[in-house]
Description:
There is one protein chain. By secondary structure, this protein is an alpha/beta fold. The chain is 53% helix and 13% strand. The chain has an 8-stranded mixed beta sheet with strand order 3-2-4-1-5-6-7-8, sandwiched between helices. Strand 2 (134-138), helix 6 (144-157) and strand 3 form a beta-alpha-beta unit. It is elongated. Bound molecules: guanosine-5'-diphosphate (GDP). Guanosine-5'-diphosphate (GDP) binds at residues 109, 111-117, 195, 250-251, 253-254, 276-279, 283. Belongs to the GTP-binding SRP family. SRP54 subfamily. It is found in: Cell inner membrane; Cytoplasm.
Amino acid sequence: MFENLSERLSGVFDKLTKQGALSEADVATALREVRVALLEADVSLPVARDFVKSVQDKAAGQAVTKSVTPGQQVVKIVHDELVQVLAGDDADAANLKIDQIPAPILMVGLQGSGKTTTTAKLAKRLKDREGKRVLMASLDTRRPAAMEQLAVLGTQIGVDVLPIVPGQDAVAIARRAKQQASLGGYDVYMLDTAGRLSIDDELMSEVEAVRDATTPRETLLVVDGLTGQDAVHTAENFDGRIGISGVVLTRMDGDGRGGAALSMRAVTGKPIKFVGLGEKMDALEEFHADRIAGRILG
Ligand code: GDP
């Protein structure tokens, strides 16, 4: 997930920890290299800059150069700072708010981001791990293939899918899903909204109307982690218009440089809740900042 960044940073920190005594200039040099590594991983410039500044301040505050193991102390500060940038103060981001029955979960995102796949992965997870009864509905009225795809995935994972009624618009389908979920005793209903290749006003208006008709407990934005800073811009856009409660980063099994994960929280203020790690239905992992920071630092 973060192989390149991880390799770069371990190069920097191996040097530091082997060196024994450190001068302030040594720390400054190392942090410059950290900054370059972050930028190469496609972390946004202000985030990389703030990150390094914060590590620098803490290193100075803790007088690391005078400590017995200065290199390790710097690594520890970087680790804590990574956790902070990845998660802010949100320790328990992956917990979904399912505090009413039935609880609506709105899935939004651009076409091809992995929205339908992620909807099914999450439904399976809620069913298998939490014993929830889940109903899924596709609102993509313009793409019959997308509706069909959700139906196929539903059969595959054993989760019910709202039957397709030709001619209904997205809001009508959402209302029907809500009604069916109430009548049928479901705990959760998931609405897989239509995506577009780019953000447009029509898409946003439709999602807004669905949101207003259902008052979702969670609005999860699915974005392609391979798209780096574009993923962060997409999140800013959706959050500004719709209001999102969290992000699912897909394709983190690919050779993405990780910048999307590292900038997302700092730029948008929204937590990453899950990451997609493949096409299979169980290739979804909770996002734990501590674990990810550990992975990045090797
Ligand atoms: P949608 O248009 O946003 O609904 O996107 P889909 O759910 O149809 O996904 C588009 C393609 O991406 C499909 O081939 C998925 O199998 C694939 N995909 C989705 N999530 C992941 C992921 O986390 N990793 C990988 N490698 N492929 C994924």
